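Let us practice reading a record.
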Amino acid sequence: MAGAYDDRDGKIWMDGQLVDWRSANVHVLSHAMHYASSVFEGERAYGGKIFKSRDHSKRLQASAQMIDFEIPWSVDEIEQAKADVMRANNYSDAYVRAVAWRGAGEDMGVASARNPVRLAVAAWEWGAYYGDAKMKGAKLDISKWKRPSPETIPSHAKAAGLYMICTMSKHAAEAKGCSDAMMFDYRGYVAEATGANIFFVKNGEVHTPLADCFLNGITRQTVIGMLKEQGVRVHERHILPEELEGFEQCWLTGTAAEVTPVGQIGDYNFEVGTIARTISDSYEKLVRA
């Protein structure tokens, strides 16, 4: 499938029924469009099975609660919607996007308690998020934007509004010929990339930022578990910018990114080494098991 995302063949599940792709529309006065009252999940299906599907559905509901609304569909119903979309579009390997939002209703100011909560699930075929970076390592810029304090936003929600600075950071990175950007947090510690968590290697041990002000990704949690099973020591901690120079390997994790080695961040270079390649291969085998 190719072309603009609003002009494709296929079916999208929307508020309890499958509709034609081009008819899956919302009103211009939907609250989410004006005030970012929206949460979403990105998931991948391999061989017809969505990896960690229920974990994603549970997180979708939790994210909605964090930004003060309830999704009127249960985890089981969300799971069925995803299965229906996969079957209706005859997909085996696909990216799956579930999104819930406050729609158009009686309220059109900041408050929106009287507006209906809506839910949609779409899926499409999507290859490697960073192209050929899995072989040679992605090149990252360093963003001028920082992940904010949990006192200012619900930082553990996968909420649309939290990605605004990620979009701007990635645009700036791409203008410099980079695949993505690494972000620091409000304290100046290394945080994450714009849509993926980050890992480093030094002296055979893995270091990854403590997820205390950004999303603790499902892929991140999976990879940490895999590393520990392989006998690799993992340090979840605050990482200072000056430590980047001493790390030997680096990779990103995320549903879209999967496990992607990093070759460069700003002026810092990394090898696509044994641990990075091993965990990338191990993850590929796990999701297809």
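A brief commentary: Helices lie at 31-35, 53-66, 75-88, 133-136, 164-175, 218-229, 274-287.
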